UniProtKB/TrEMBL annotation:
Keyword Cell cycle recorded: no
Species per Swiss-Prot/TrEMBL record: Albidovulum marisflavi
Rieske domain span: 44-153
UniProt xrefs under Gene3D superfamilies: Naphthalene 1,2-dioxygenase Alpha Subunit, Chain A, domain 1, Rieske [2Fe-2S] iron-sulphur domain
Entry annotated with the keyword NADP: no
InterPro entries per the UniProt record, alphabetical: Rieske_2Fe-2S, Rieske_2Fe-2S_sf, Ring_hydroxy_dOase_asu_C_dom, Rng_hydr_dOase-A
Identification of the protein by name: Aromatic ring-hydroxylating dioxygenase subunit alpha
Lineage of source species: Bacteria, Pseudomonadati, Pseudomonadota, Alphaproteobacteria, Rhodobacterales
Length: 404
């Protein structure tokens, strides 16, 4: 934990290809369509936390890559996931990013009524439909898995195993931080950036830039930050703080007020940790709080940012102060990362851009790119195929790989 940032992460091989994805993959509309289908619709996405929907009838919604999700707690207390569309004409049965319905979901278009378990209670003017079998017209289910309180959904079956299997190496960490007990500190937030989603992830997937680009993080923990693991599309990064009092106002007061909870294992009491989940999700812990954040592609050049911050159920005044100070540090860091994403994304349209040349400290970027190349082999091509040929070329390369 106390190794210097300049130390080579233990999972990095001695010799590896330091090139990143070619620049064309950040601006191709045709590739964006493939990414929606093969990356975002077929991999686990963080919907929220069970603390966001504590009572029967509470729900969350989220839109991802042409799909609309609804997560709702039923009268029986069970959390379920559905496609957020009425089986009649496809209208949303739940609106807003979060809400509550007392006993049923009512489609705002024609008034079809669904029970909280997704079954169809009844259609408006049922006599106008002839012999309508209600059992055939319930809301369509999504894969949903709860893991230490976090809610994961998937729109279509994909290459990832269950969330429990995927995150098994880090189960002790999530248990130590008592993730299942978390409560929301505010609403789930969203925002947009004028960049390709991969540019956002490239910045977040490495700590090499911390020393230069993030004065507050460097002041807090830059001496100890370490990317420790890259396994099956999951990354884990840890940093300890408190070895210096901090120079910046937020850092100095955070170090002062951050609680040392006795219920936390000693190794976690002064630790910030980040767990990246392919393709674009992150769950992070500090001694007094936790958060998730993620990116979803809106177009080849626009990205939706989404996340939430959670607090301890027995939060003290000291915890609350520390959480606020951590938020101030993260807020400034987020602004800095957004600018870096914009600069990186726009550079790839320049005639001077040739390729990345990655440091050992940026191996997380390489791992993420390799996962994408595995799913979409067309991303391995240095030069862009014609836009109308991208899908065909990708299919041909995938077919070729399957015969080797």
């Amino acid at each position: 934990m106390n190794r210097s940032l300049v130390t080579k992460p233990r999972t990095v091989p001695e010799e590896w290809d330091r090139r990143g994805l070619p620049g064309w993959t950040y601006h191709s509309d045709a590739l964006f369509e493939l990414e929606k289908q093969e990356v975002f619709q077929t991999h686990w996405q963080i919907a929220g936390h069970v603390g966001d929907i504590p009572a029967p009838g509470d729900y969350l919604t989220m839109d991802i890559a042409d799909e609309r999700a609804l997560v709702i707690r039923g009268k029986d207390g069970v959390v379920r996931g559905f496609h957020n569309l009425c089986r009649h004409r496809g209208a949303r049965v739940a609106t807003g990013d979060k809400g509550h319905c007392k006993g049923a979901l009512v489609c705002p278009f024609h008034g079809w009524v669904y029970n909280l378990d997704g079954t169809l209670r009844g259609a408006a003017r049922p006599e106008s439909f002839g012999a309508l079998d209600r059992t055939e017209f319930g809301l369509k289910s999504l894969e949903l898995e709860l893991w230490h309180g976090f809610i994961f959904i998937r729109f279509r079956p994909g290459p990832q195993p269950s969330v429990a299997q995927l995150l098994a190496p880090f189960e002790p960490d999530f248990a130590a931080w008592r993730a299942e007990e978390l409560l929301p500190s505010d609403r789930i937030w969203t925002g947009e950036l004028p960049v390709n989603w991969k540019s956002v992830r490239d910045v977040d997937n490495e700590g090499y830039h911390v020393a230069m680009a993030h004065p507050a993080l460097q002041d807090l923990y830059g001496r100890t930050y370490q990317d420790r693991s890259f396994t099956n599309g999951i990354s884990a990064s840890y940093a300890t703080f408190g070895d210096t009092p901090g120079r910046l106002w937020s850092v100095r007061h955070y170090v002062r007020f951050s609680p040392q909870h006795e219920w936390l294992p000693e190794a976690h009491r002064r630790t910030w940790a980040y767990f990246g989940i392919f393709p674009s999700g992150v769950i992070a812990f500090t001694p007094e709080s936790a958060q998730f954040y993620q990116e979803f592609p809106v177009s080849a050049g626009r990205t939706l940012m989404r996340g939430a911050i959670y607090r301890r159920p027995d939060e003290t005044r000291q915890d609350r102060v520390a959480r606020y100070l951590a938020y101030r540090i993260d807020r400034e860091t987020g602004k800095e990362d957004q600018q870096l994403s914009i600069w990186s994304n726009e550079s790839m349209k320049s005639s001077a851009f040739e390729d990345f040349h990655l440091s050992d400290l940026e191996f997380g970027v390489k791992v993420h790119h390799d996962q994408l190349r595995k799913l979409l082999p067309v991303m391995s091509l240095t030069h862009a195929p014609p836009e109308e040929e991208v899908a065909k070329v990708n299919a041909n390369l995938r077919s070729l790989e399957s015969t080797i």
